[in-house]
Design goal:
mainly alpha, 0% strand
Length: 74
């Protein structure tokens, strides 16, 4: 396995690596660092997605984007 293949596997499914990929990361400092970076990004993303959305936010955003339309255009 080479580093490009490893990166593709890690990005395709950050939570599961085949044994061959795990062995590569254990022997390759660059890929081991890549694992740390991707894992941190995954944790950050999960934390961000877990942030509660305020009540009515979607309606306010849509109103701001599309604006109030005259009744004849509704």
């Amino acid at each position: 396995m080479n580093c490009l293949e490893f990166h593709r596997l890690k990005l395709a499914d950050p939570h599961r690596l085949p044994p061959e990929a795990q062995a590569h990361a254990a022997q390759c400092a660059a890929c081991a660092a890549f694992v740390i970076s991707v894992d941190q990004a995954e944790r950050d993303l999960e934390r961000t997605l877990a942030t509660p959305v305020p009540e009515g936010l979607a309606d306010r955003v849509l109103l701001r984007v599309h604006g109030a339309r005259p009744a004849w255009r509704a």
